[in-house]
Each structure stands twice: as structure tokens, then as C-alpha cells.
Amino acid sequence: MRSICSFLTLFLTSVLWADDPDLQIYKEVDGYSLNLHIFRSPAHISGAAPKPAIVFFFGGGWAGGTPTQFYPQCEYLADRGMVAMAAEYRVKSRHNTTPFECVMDGKSALRWIRKNAAKLGVDPERIGAGGGSAGGHVAAAVATVPGLNEEGEDLSISCLPDTLVLFNPVYDNGPGGFGYPKLKDRYREISPMHNLREGMPPTIVFLGDQDKLIPVPTAEKFRDEMRKLGNRSELVVYPGQSHGFFNQGKPGGGYLKTLQEMDKFLNSLGWLEKY
After folding, report:
1. pLDDT digits (tens, 9 = 90+) for 196-221
2. In which domain, by residue range, is 72 found?
3. pTM of the entire predicted model
4. CA-wise closest residue to 176 among 165, 184, 168, 164
5. Which of 112, 174, 181, 233 has the fewest CB atoms within 10 Å, i.e. is most exposed?
């Protein structure tokens, strides 16, 4: 009961968050500047011990969307002692790009955070990635696919996240999977499901059982294949919930429920401050 009360107190605190995020350019490409929207608790003072971090990628079918989608999760995790970020990345409607550039930007974001960890007050060995739908794909692809690195980047800096927090993610781009008509014969270059390996980061996935884009059997296959490879992989399925159910303001309470499960998962990794 005490932990539930503490969670609700922190949740209400995050709802009342008033500070704007700090914007930092992490990449300049094709005339565009891409920012990270960075949230820190006011208690996160300069010179304090490095904090775990997480960067979220918004959904929108690789065609649209904005970082504000994950502001609520960022605000909550900042209150829990993390440095939480929401990333801009190129999308078709604004930059006339393909899913491949989305993943390239995701890798650039992780490398920039790790390179600038000391300046950000971040522990470079505890940097997670998360996202919803196509943004969940970006996060998962950054962790799995071996290619799609931006030309000229320092590849000695790892882009691999240390955990994944995925909300109805697109992670099977093969025949019958989401996005296959766009990707066709190149799907193996970008499909997380087809690039799993040993040593993947601990992963949690949230999915509604009424999701028309990401079937539950696809999520179960991902979880099972991860576990066969010796990786920690958790799947939480929510009855009666559809695609995007986790967003703040959606009916059914999916936002609060997934927030609590995310808290439990990250706490199990030792990434959150004690209540």
C-alpha cells in the first residue's frame, strides 16, 4: 500500500510539472537541426553522482509525430531521479525521409548522449531507449540492427541502449508485418525481430490485446525469441486496449497503468531513486 501511495504522489507531482525541457541539438543533417528535449529533476544538481538516462522516440508511422508525446513519461522519470529525454528525428511529412533515416537518427541520439554523458550528468553505462509504435521501432532497431549508421559518425562510441521500454512497438517488418510494403526486400536491414542476438538489453513491452497493427502473437514471438537467446524480455498485455492506449488522456487508464509497470521494471534494474 505504501509503494502505491508513493507512486501516486510522484504521479501527481509529474502532472504538475512546470519547467520546460532543456533543448540540446544532437545532430545537424541536410539543413535540419535535431534536438533532444531533456528533463531533469530540480534536485539533480551539478556535480551530483551520474544518473541513469532514457531517451524516448515518438510514434507516427515514420511520417509524423512530435516529442511532446512522451513529455509525461519524461516528467515522471525525472521526478524518479533519471535524466529523461524525448528526441526529435526526421520523418516523411517534414523531411521527406524513409524509416532508414529514422533509425540513423536514433543511433545518432544514443551516441550523442553517451559522448556527452559527463556534461549531462548521465551514467554512460545506464542509458535506455524507449518509444511508441514507430518510435518503439526506432528504439528497438537502435538496439538490434548492425548497420544504418550516419556517415562520418564516431562508431567507437556505442549506440546500444542498456534497456528498452517499448509501447506497442513496430518490431516485425518482415512479410505480413507493419511497414513491409515500404521496405520490401530491405526489411532485414531494419526489422528488430530479424536481428535478435544474445546480449540484448533487458526489455519490457506494453501492448493492448485489441491492437490492429501489432498482433499479440507477434509480441509473444519477440518475447519468446529473446528469452531463447538468454535475454530478459517482459510483455504486459492489456485487455480491451487498442493501439496508442498508453498515451496520457486516452480512455481506459492505460497511461497510469503502463507508467506503474515501467516504474516497477526500471526499479528492478536499480535505475530509480527510492521513494
Report:
1. 999 999 999 999 999 999 999 999 99
2. 2-268
3. 0.93
4. 184
5. 181
